[in-house]
Amino acid sequence: MDNMLEMYLYETNTLLEQLDELLIEAEKNEDFTTNDVNEIFRIMHTIKGSSAMMEFSTLMEIAHHIEDLFFYIRENGLDAMDESHKSDLFNLMFQSTDALRSEVEKIENDEPLSTNIDNVITDINSFLEKIRSGASGSGEDRTAESVQPADKETINIINQELAGCPSSSLPYFIRIHFEQGCGMENLRAFMVVTALKELEIQFEAYPEDVESNSDTSESIIENGFFIACASHEDIDTAIHAIKDQNSIETYEVIENAAVKNKPAQEASPAPADTKAESREDASPSAAPKSAPASAAPQHAAPVKQSLISVNLSKLDSLLALVGEIVITEAMVTSSPDLQNLKLDNFLKSARQLRKLTDDLQDIAMSLRMVSVSGTFQKMNRIVRDMKKKLGKDVRLTIIGENTEVDKTIVDSIGDPIMHIVRNSMDHGIEEDVNDRIAAGKPAQAEIILSAAHTGNEVIISVSDDGRGMDTEAILAKAERNGILVKPASEYTKKEILALLMVPGFSTNESVTEFSGRGVGMDVVKKNVESVGGTITITSELGQGSCTTLKIPLTMAIVDGMEVSVGNSLFTIPISNIRQSFKAQAEDVILDTSGNEMIKCMNEFYPIVRAHQLYNIETEKVNIEDGILIWVEASDKSYCLFVDELLGEQQVVVKPLPAFLSNFNIKDSGIVGCTIMGDGNISIILDILNLFVAAQSQY
Question: Can you say how many angstroms the Cα of residue 377 is from the centroid of all Cα atoms in its chain?
Fold first, then answer.
């Protein structure tokens, strides 16, 4: 059951994301296409069926009513609606998808589903009645034409199926075809019969013995399954029940030629609201197919699927196993027993093994990589809703949405990106469009959301062409809040903008629907740094702002520089290193607090001695004996003093044991560890927290 629930949630969330993207694009074009209508119908039918199977009645009800709405639109055409109807339909669909998504979130959080969805259902039904009442009478004529006498082939099939049966005198047949390859067609037909028996209608089914005779499956596949009905009302009731059945590809209503000359009140075509329908339903992996109402369906060959869904925990286990293989391979090739031995064949095999393990590692990592498009596309909805509520004309431009990042990281950066986009909409874009025009800007504002690879990092930026940030106002607010750590005059522009991410700081003077609720950029910064990323803000007053996130491609395996301090080994992520160099004692100066500093690129940076921070005994305590590594993380930049560099190496990150959390070891600048080829353990350093830990010692 857990596996079924996981699959249900995965498929439903995927469909809702597809629906959001479709609605956003359709609203930009100010109209639905025929393909849009078919796609929405298909999505709702799939959600309805899967929700019914899982007994999530609330989701099933909402999806069922939207499906009915779009079935009407599909059958009557988009011309049945005027422009005001289309605008209302967009709002109704966004409201309905929000209701569906809210119910899905309750399932994910193991909360009870809503017991009252009358307002959602009433809105959908009211809209359907509105467009029905506004439609012309031509719809009835179109409906009447959809019921036609059966062709010769169909008559022959019916005569074979119904030979000698008393019900062959009934005026109408509903001919049903199930999806190709669905299997157990006879039992699926029996489920249709069972559903119809619960209704107060007169009907007969052919073949009759579908429950007990599995051989009838071949006849159903070739000719279809027939339901004979006596009246228009019975047809209408039966069709509504058939709509709710799974695996039905098409159905059609045809006249019984044997009673063609019966009195008009019994043999006339169905009226508009009980019309005969030809309906095609498709699975999530297939596009809708169409078949004429009076023709036998043309079954296409099944499409072989080239994609599968895999539980993320299995990928975690695979990556962990690959990490162990990488470590074991390094331990074998670096074994002390092999030192000073001439083993040409062994070295040749070892090189081949290294190549294979590297390839295996790359493939295992690529399996976890997903594009940021899903996260980016959700921002379209954020901008759309805020445009309407704030009355701002803004367009969202997305660049590099196919950029791939580790699945865990993608899940973690969704909320930070959403908060930044909301900030740009709420604070960044001017309130009055006349202010933009007066500043020589286009009336329509723009927010650019972009992603790009740079080595082993992904750079994600959110920029806008709004009013920018007033650094003097920010500094004054920070001073009033008492969060400055040095005189205001000593703050650079970069440092002032970094104050926006200090806990509790907010430039918003009043609470709005989108911001000013105590959850600010400090939370965004914390979330980004939790996945090993950094965040920076740049801005020009009157021109706009840009927030940049630097995110590692993966947290499982990193490129690191191995260094030694005494007898201890440490790994510094290559992405944090700017330069390494030797220095002399006379190059070091002291600040007013007596802390060591050194000049790099015409700027002075503090020196952090690793052996002092971690109380490690070492003989290299003089600056000229060791080496300085200039490192940078977020808005912190400093020089780390170590004994020596051991070389660059790709390492598998191992999390710290849980019991070490009691000692707040992460606050000491230690993020994890790795096992070296010789079996020794190297501590992986967190450059940002290491500096904070060093500062707290002074």
Answer: 8
